[in-house]
């Protein structure tokens, strides 16, 4: 236990950076789960088909094979790519439903993953660049967490609407979240 101010600030800074990495990981897990739920909703539509178990297994494998959310960050490109496997135009759908928030969510996800990558790869040059855009403080973390909660709710609404259109069934969740 030291009373030297400098050491505590250093430790606090590293704890803050760890929070951003964790936030990015949690959101990636949410996106992967949302994609899994969408796949399950689509393949459930096969009930009643002869050999349904095999057909569902094959379709599920096809819709998740090469999924970037399994190996990469939950950046805007990877999210859009993975939902395109379901024939969904993810970001255009998000931006149509949330014309004000959608572009902000896209930018925030790109910024979050820039922070995550700079920290995870110990890239001090990239870390300096992201620090120029915003302070990486507990206040910023809390703001981004609130925004990601809103983003998750919005993504759920958009994916649920898409699934209702594709399957004709109302998906779990998928309530109205936020305004445009």
Rg for CA atoms: 19 Å
Q: What number of domains?
A: 1
User: What fraction, in percent, of the residue positions are helical?
Assistant: over 70%
Q: Report the sheet with the most strands, covering strand number, pairing sense and barrel closure.
A: none
> What shape does the CA trace take?
elongated
Mean pLDDT: 89
Structural class: mainly alpha
Low-confidence stretches: 1-5, 174-179
Number of distinct beta strands = 0
Number of helices: 7
Q: Beta-strand percentage? A: under 5%
Between the first and last Cα atoms, what is the distance in angstroms?
A: 50 Å
Order of helices and strands: HHHHHHH
Describe this structure in a few short sentences.
The protein is mainly α and 180 residues long. Helix content is 72%, strand content 0%. The relative contact order is 0.14.
What order do the helices and strands come in, and which of them pair?
Layout: H1 5-43, H2 52-64, H3 76-84, H4 90-97, H5 101-120, H6 124-133, H7 138-167
Helix pairs in contact: 1-2, 1-5, 1-7, 4-5, 4-7, 5-6, 5-7
Can you give a write-up of this model?
This protein has 180 residues and is an all-alpha fold. The chain has one domain (12-164). The chain has seven helices and no strands. The longest helix has 39 residues, at 5-43. The model is unreliable at 1-5 and 174-179 (pLDDT under 50).
């Amino acid at each position: 236990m030291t009373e030297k101010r400098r050491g505590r600030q250093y430790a606090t800074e590293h704890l803050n950076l760890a929070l951003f990495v964790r936030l990015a990981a949690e959101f990636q897990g949410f996106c992967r789960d949302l994609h899994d739920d969408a796949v399950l909703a689509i393949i459930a539509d096969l009930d009643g088909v002869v050999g349904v178990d095999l057909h569902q297994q094959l379709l599920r494998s096809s819709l998740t094979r090469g999924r970037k959310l399994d190996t990469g960050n939950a950046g805007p490109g990877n999210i859009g790519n993975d939902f395109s496997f379901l024939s969904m135009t993810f970001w255009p759908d998000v931006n149509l439903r949330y014309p004000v928030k959608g572009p902000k969510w896209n930018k925030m996800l790109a910024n979050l993953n820039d922070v995550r990558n700079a920290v995870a790869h110990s890239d001090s040059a990239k870390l300096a660049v992201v620090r120029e855009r915003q302070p990486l403080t507990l206040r910023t973390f809390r703001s981004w967490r609130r925004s990601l909660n809103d983003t998750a709710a919005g993504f759920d609404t958009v994916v649920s609407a898409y699934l209702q259109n594709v399957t004709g069934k109302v998906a779990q969740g998928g309530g109205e979240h936020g305004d445009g």
